[in-house]
Amino acid sequence: MKLFDFWGGVHPLGQKHLSAEQPIRELPMPARLYVPLQQHTGRAALPMVKAGDKVGKGQLLGREHGGVSASVHAPTSGTVVAVGEFTAPHASGLSLPTIMLDSDGEDRWVEREPPPDPFALEPEAVADRIGAAGVVGMGGANFPAALKLGKARQAKVHTLAVNGAECEPYMTCDDRLMRERAEPIVDGVRLMLHALQAPRAVIAVEDNKPEAAAQMRAACQHDRNIQVAVVPARYPAGSAKQLIQLLTGLETPAGGRGTDTGVLVHNVGTAYAVHRALRQAHPLISRIVTVTGGAVFRPQNLEAPIGALVDDLLAFCGGAPAAARLLMGGPMMGQPLPGTCAHRQRDQRHFGADRRRDPNGRAFAVHPLRALCRSMSDGVDAAGNVQTRPPRRSGRRAGVRLDRLHQLRFLRLCLPFAHSAGAIFRLRARRARNPPARRAESQGNPPSAGSAASAAGAGRTGQGRGRRAAPSGKARGQG
Question: Model pTM?
Answer without folding.
Answer: 0.75
